[in-house]
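Re: export button greyed out
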Amino acid sequence: MEKSSRRSFFKVAGISLLGISGAAPVLNSFAESQVSHTVEGSYVKNESTLQAKRWGMIINTKELSEDNVPSIIEACHKAHNVPNIDNKKHEVKWIWEEEFKHAFPTVNHDFLNERVENLKFLVFCNHCNNPPCVRACPTKATFKRDDGIVLMDFHRCIGCRFCMAACPYGSRSFNFENPRPFIEETNPLFPTRMKGVVEKCNFCAERLAVGKIPACVEAANGAIVFGDLNDPESEIRQVLKENYTIRRKPALGTGPSVYYIV
Amino acid sequence: MNDKKIIYLGLIIFAVIFTFPFWYNQLKASPAPEPILSQTAKDAKTCVEPKEFMKTGHMQLLNTWRDKVVREGMRQYKSTNGKDYNISLSSGEESCMGCHGSKADFCDKCHNYASVTPYCWDCHIEPKENK
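Workaround output, generated via the alternate export path:
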């Protein structure tokens, strides 16, 4: 072994110098990246944004028919790039038709009115006042907004499907495969989803933000009423006052915001 | 102790291989690419925030934007330069891609160089000219 000497000191010093000169570009590039990463802009809502305390809908089933129901569904699915997958197990749907006995199992009885028994009901996310999906979601990807809309943050969904298990209305769909190839005509104003993400009706939050009513309401020509349930003066409350309405599975305590005139 | 030579030789070979990326790139570093600005972006003359910040911090800004839009419904951004911007990645003319019309010329140039692959376009729809 060498003793500590001037000779060995120079050896170490020389090697260290080499190391430093070799690492210089790396250190420089680190130094360059030390620019400020914060800016102080501010955020506001669009002026035209439609606002409410609690958004709700009434489906007037007396005005639903085979003529307008498919166009309502199509309007929604087109606006949101909902894929059209034939495989029942992989199917994705935001709004669809359901028989009375499945939509309202607790109200169903043996001697049902013939019209109601054969009617196809439009069902979708109920945007519950007390949404079980929100409680079940471990990442807070699904959440309830101040205006009562139960929304999905697709960026944040990890695809655990707890929300699907929690939803008593089966309103949520899971993307078992990449949906892009199944969308005939993509709408550039709304993103698609990717494999492994849960999706559902969003009450057209993106349209409300720019002052438009939901796509299904627009396509329904009056068969669907949309408005603020918390505002006693609103149209939706007048319709509720004048008509007998039912909600899906109210006994579960989720407080659906979607009403049906039967 | 007759293996001294072999050990030193081995150490040298190891050192050369280990430091190879450093000196190899120093000799042959490829220049950083310049993203190509679309005509709309050139005409606007100014970025959403100062260019230097956008170069290094656009991802932080986009990350904040997406949370603001999706979670809080805030869709207007008042920039430090006093202008209002519509917060949207790809919907309409008043969006990121409305101004920077080409993903290939603008985003991909640097992302490919830096070997960064963000998954924005798995869901968001890129401007038409790239298809």
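Chain B has a mean pLDDT of 87. The button fix ships in the next patch.
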